[in-house]
Amino acid sequence: MAYLEELYLGNNNLSGSIAAELGKLSNFSILYLFENSLSGGIPQSLLNLSSLRHLALGQNMLGEVLPPNIGDALPNLRWFVLDYNMFGGHIPASIGNCSKIEDIMLSRNNFSGPVPGSFGKLSKFSLLYLEENMIEASNDESWDFLHAMGNCTLLQGVSLDDTQLQGGIPSSIGNMSVNLQYFSLARNRLTGTLPPNIGNLHGLIHLLLAGNDLAGTIEGRFEKMTHLQFLNLQANNFTGAIPPSIGNLTNLIQLILSENAFSSHMPTSFGNLQQLIIMDLSHNNLEGDIPSNLGDLGQLQHLDLSDNKLKGIIP
């Protein structure tokens, strides 16, 4: 099989280690071994495959530390998929030298340390999924990746759920790609207020910040996000009134603001959210009447207003 270029063995019951002999296939461009029971690490011989474009090893039992020069050895990578494994150590900065890379999916491993700032050099970068790792950011230097990725104008999705991010969200978030559609920092240890310029991300469809310690008002943050369909701010410390302008986000499907300290009245503008399926405003300090026009939300399937100070009649 000296001329083999593509190998698809995903979703089988393969076990053992990845064969080192694969590194002898000089024309190799695609290797799919996802959803098996492979163990061990990435053989050093695979770094000989400089033509490799797709490396998909997700959902195995692979581990060890990635070779620090993996990005230099595999400069033509476009898909780098290692999710649902047991890899550890730092994410190699050399991946930032893979100038053609589009998708990096390293979720559910044991990676630690910061996200490499070198990712900001990836002009074709589209997806970065790093959730459920031990990724860290606690000072300006370790948050630098967010500033650097402002150069990635094709970026569409960033997921950093369930990592070790802490401190305030830098204002550089507002410089990220206007093409960004999915952004999640849920279940970290984030504090402080939402930077006002987060509203520059007006292409967002999903914004998920649940399970942090973010505080302050959300006034003026979301007005420009007219494409937003999923907004989840659950389990933070946000205060003040819920801005009536959220009622102008008419593409919303899920609005989850529960377990905060929002006060004042429910905006009557929520009656404009005709696409809404889930609304959860429970466990806040809302008061006054429930807006009568909520009864006009024909798509609504789940409404939770429990544990507030609402009064009056049920619409």
From TrEMBL:
Protein keywords: Glycoprotein, Leucine-rich repeat, Repeat, Signal
Source species, domain of life: Eukaryota
Nuclease is among the record's keywords: no
Family matches, as Pfam families: LRR_1, LRR_8
Single annotated GO MF: kinase activity
Full protein name: LRR receptor-like serine/threonine-protein kinase
InterPro entries: Leu-rich_rpt, Leu-rich_rpt_typical-subtyp, LRR-RLK, LRR_dom_sf
